Amino acid sequence: MNEITVRPMTPEDWSAVAKIYLEGIATEHATFQTDCPPYTAWDASHTKECRLVVVDDGVLAGWAALHRVDPRWCYRGVAEISIYIGERFRGRGLGSQLLNALCQEAEEAGYWTLQSTVLQDNAASKGLHLKCGFRLVGRRERIARDCHGRWLDTLLMERRCKDDEPSGYRKL
After folding, report:
1. pLDDT tens digits, one per residue of 112-152
2. Residue 49 sits in a domain of what CATH number?
3. Chain-centre distance of CA 106, in angstroms?
4. Which residues contact 141 (CB under 8 A, 6 or more apart)?
5. Nearest residue to 75 (alpha-carbon basis) of 43, 106, 112, 45
6. Which residues, including other chains, have CB under 8 Å from residue 91's CB and lie 6 or more apart?
7. Ranges for the N-acetyltransferase domain (predicted)?
8. Beta-strand runs (E) in 18-134
9. What angle, 0 to 180 degrees and rounded to 10, lies between the N-to-C axes of helices 94-109 and 123-131?
10. How many domains, in total, are found in the chain?
11. Predicted structure pTM score
């Protein structure tokens, strides 16, 4: 039986995180990005809290992090999720463990709304988000072109905090 743990991401995890991100980019179903940014750019664009990795028998198997959707104070509790599972670890339930842990940590940190943008062809990501309590709230048609020039839609998935005021609300 494999030992699965979810723990905070550290800067030392970056090489494994970047490798997994590049695997996601290669699928052409995970993101419109075509390359992985350097750590300094990635670090600056994501919140300092709520960065997690899932480890399977000592091997970093996936990661998840948040970035704020809007810098204005009124939206301080709204963040977008990035979640990626390494190619050889997909389909084993690690995504559910990681996403559920991220949602719990985000609520404890004071976030009341988490959202995720899922590309139209990414059925696995849509299923993962639905399984973890997200709901489909919208579809953005022909929002961006992929690396082949095809117009693609994205699905907006959202999860609201169970309480009107999350436990960490005052922290933000």
Report:
1. 999 999 999 999 999 999 999 999 999 999 988 887 888 98
2. 3.40.630.30
3. 12
4. 153
5. 112
6. 124
7. 4-162
8. 52-56, 59-68, 78-85, 113-119
9. 50
10. 1
11. 0.91
